[in-house]
Amino acid sequence: MTLADVKQYADGTVPSVGGRAVVVGGSMAGLCAARVLTDAFDEVVVLDRDEFPDGPRVRDGAPQTSQPHAMLEAGRVTLEEFFPGFGEEVRAAGGLKLDMSKDLAWYDQGGFLADAEPELPALYASRPLFEQLVRERVRKLDEVQLRGRCSLIDYEHDASEGRVTGVRFRDEDGTEEVLTATLVVDATGRTSRTPKWLESHGYPAPTVDEVMVDVTYSTVRIRRPPEARSGVLVGPEPDRPRGAAMLPIERDRWEVVLQGMHGERAPADRETFIEWAEALPADGIGRQVTESEWLSDIHRYPFPASVWRHYEELDRFPDGLIVTGDAIASFNPIYGQGMSVAALDALVLHHELTGGLEGLAPRFFARASRPVEEAWRLAVGNDFNFAGTSGPKPFGTDLFNRYVARLIRRAQSDGALTEAFFRVFRLERPATSLLHPPVAWRVLRPRIGAAIAGARGTARSSAELSTE
Ligand SMILES: Cc1cc2nc3c(=O)[nH]c(=O)nc-3n(C[C@H](O)[C@H](O)[C@H](O)COP(=O)(O)OP(=O)(O)OC[C@H]3O[C@@H](n4cnc5c(N)ncnc54)[C@H](O)[C@@H]3O)c2cc1C
Predict the structure, then answer these.
(1) Does 462 map to a domain?
(2) In a domain, 221, yes or no
(3) Which domain holds residue 180?
(4) How many domains does the chain have?
(5) N or C: at which end does the chain have fewer Cβ atoms within 10 angstroms?
(6) Close Cβ partners of 3 (under 8 Å, ≥ 6 residues apart)
């Protein structure tokens, strides 16, 4: 499921059930869930073990907030539906709205993708800023209470009813507290303890797909001239398992991330960082990290594996509880999907709440598995281009990968293929749209035809990355 096949958020369609919902985890998934829960509940309490900061801050509870976060179209549009004016707020706070194709030089399969003709809008800002703006919109909702420095200890459970009835947690003062709730949402991310809890309370735990990718990230922030409003992305490839991105963000900065896969350790020191950047096949990043002022230390982050917990397969699950966001699935971050899938999960929750609370968990898990599956197939599918990737391989991956590799090479001279690819990458359209006849023809037709199309497309060279 992508933006193309999910109904928009619709105000006034969710019946009020009153009472209280508790969301554990106040990061992107928890905040989006809280937003849609306010349509049904009188009170929505969001607990997080971190303090809820007043400004854009990197948080210990979500340490990946120190790393660049791309906002895909599915996330951008969904957040705009939840929080009308969100995009404008990002811009007002210094973020950028750019054309993902024309303003981002995308290097893949030995060349830059040609420009797509239609505008492909995208928001660029740091992760702390995106999160801050969402948090402030949620904080303003009358029904919502954000409680920081509150750590979940356990769910309250009525075994005879098979129902979660609330949460026990350590509060701001270190005191143990219980909050009863009609619905508890686990949005605690990758380290969610719900699978263990289920097992210890006599429920089946979800089966887990784990795909080892062994990714490391190293990120710095550098000074960006205000007029330089472009970025660069170089995807890792099997014979060069090093990737990079340089994305413009607020306060006239670029975030520069270097990524290593399968044993390539992204650098920890400045000298090696520059060496890596200069060795990239696109010259813009190396030049900027050498010449521009560094505004941060190097922040490193290891990401061993993509993980999908299959809650949708369970035949028994307690009432009064659901799980969302990274706690269901977390994807190799180089594809930038997590925040968008978290927003789509909340959109699914919104639609399922229109049917009331009866049987909510199985309905929600079944529907939420669709955006997860779409994102998973894209991320994990591409990861299986690398010999070192291990884990369950989705059916048809190798054939599809060969087709996409050819599509990408053709997209270097055919902007229509760049558009088709980006709309899938941005979780706007399903991956099967790449097989539709008008696209497949451009991919598979004899080379002479592509050359004619190429004359129409706008090929890009790395010389365009100059800010001068
Ligand atoms: C290196 C890296 C780069 C990424 N880049 C991108 C990107 O470019 N684009 C993108 O869309 N996504 C990206 N992601 C993914 C993105 O960060 C997540 O998908 C997104 O934050 C949604 O996650 P979440 O809210 O489910 O969980 P998290 O963000 O992990 O938040 C979980 C929250 O739960 C709280 N918590 C945990 N345990 C408890 C407890 N016991 N009690 C109370 N609170 C608790 C934590 O403090 C935290 O606030 C990246 C991830 C990584 C690791």
Answers:
(1) no
(2) no
(3) 3-99+123-209+307-382
(4) 1
(5) C
(6) 73, 74, 77, 78, 344, 427, 428, 429
Number of Cβ within a 10 Å radius of residue 358: 7
What is the pTM for the complete model shown? 0.95
What is the distance in A from the centroid of ligand 1 to the CA of 125? 16
Location of structure tokens 């049917």 = 355
Residue with the smallest CA separation from ligand 1 atom 49 is 27
Beta bridge partners of 208: 309
468 residues of the chain, pLDDT tens digit each? 788 778 899 999 999 999 999 999 999 999 999 999 999 999 999 999 999 999 999 999 999 999 999 999 999 999 999 999 999 999 999 999 999 999 999 999 999 999 999 999 999 999 999 999 999 999 999 999 999 999 999 999 999 999 999 999 999 999 999 999 999 999 999 999 999 999 999 999 999 999 999 999 999 999 999 999 999 999 999 999 999 999 999 999 999 999 999 989 999 999 999 999 999 998 899 999 999 999 999 999 999 999 999 999 999 999 999 999 999 999 999 999 999 999 999 999 999 999 999 999 999 999 999 999 999 999 999 999 999 999 999 999 999 999 999 999 999 999 999 999 999 999 999 999 999 999 999 999 987 554 554 444 444 433 344 332
* Ligand 1 site, CB within 6 A: 24-30, 47-50, 61-62, 64, 67-70, 151-152, 187-190, 217, 301, 303, 325-327, 333, 336-340, 342
CATH number at residue 94: 3.50.50.60
Nearest one of 177, 75, 178 to 134, comparing CA atoms? 75
Residue 265 lies in a domain: no
Domain-embedded: residue 426? no
| Cβ atoms of residues 108 and 1 within 8 Å | no
What is the number of the ligand 1 atom nearest to the C-alpha of 193? 41
Compute, in angstroms, the gap from residue 153 CA to the centroid of ligand 1. Answer: 19
